[in-house]
Amino acid sequence: xxxxxxxxxxxxxxxxxxxxxxxxxxxxxxxxxxxxxxxxxxxxxxxxxxxxxxxxxxxxxxxxxxxxxxxxxxxxxxxxxxxxxxxxxxxxxxxxxxxxxxxxxxxxxxxxxxxxxxxxxxxxxxxxxxxxxxxxxxxxxxxxxxxxxxxxxxxxxxxxxxxxxxxxxxxxxxxxxxxxxxxxxxxxxxxxxxxxxxxxxxxxxxxxxxxxxxxxxxxxxxxxxxxxxxxxxxxxxxxxxxxxxxxxxxxxxxxxxxxxxxxxxxxxxxxxxxxxxxxxxxxxxxxxxxxxxxxxxxxxxxxxxxxxxxxxxxxxxxxxxxxxxxxxxxxxxxxxxxxxx
Length: 341
What we know:
37% helix; single chain; 12 helices
């Protein structure tokens, strides 16, 4: 009798832990019963998921250059590189942006990871018939899909730019002392958040929603993560209209933001420093753009990557931080270097 009671209590405790601490909410899938409506063009992928996309720039059929833009954290396909229409027309650029899995109006992907991002991009490009080769630009955490493209679909790339690219602190090729130095630059609460994402992904939803300890500073609105230049630029960045901003997380914060962090800081199938030059004959180029004052992405890690992968063109921008993409002159330079560098 005692054993039966103890077993029942143990099962009850496990059920409580699962329901209260570990269970993640079901997503509100766009187009489903009681889910948000579908208002954007979408393509259907081989696995049945849909990706929502947006096209801008010159018409696809008239473009000299076709660029897939990969948005960052808590963003969407409505992110646009801030260059003038005159420059876009001068260069002949067609931009294709999309909601990454779980964001906006793109279906969630329970199996989302670094690898799946590259094949989502490839399928989207093929569905829209933008050609056998295209350029990619990834911003902040939206840069890990670029690393994925360099690993899994390098033959599809005409060039790539990683702008203030996030870094996974658990890639094995980084020297331990460099990783420790860079990691300790982060706020303590962010260090713990990324550790849990890496070592205890099953606990991550609970961590992000518990009230005893601070979690991700960015989601708490902690402005100390920004350098003075970032704070200055924040005053001039036009806010996304409220209806568009609301769409970013509309299918659930776990499916959009949390899965993004889990993929980026989880265990990768490859190491960045093992990648090969996709353009050994010089018929394309790869660029990293890093703000020296960036307090979100420590510059020393991206500098180290470029020193080891000498085929990457590294641009370290003094006096700028994480928001350098929002400077019009720098954005124009990023595009020209990508297309002509």
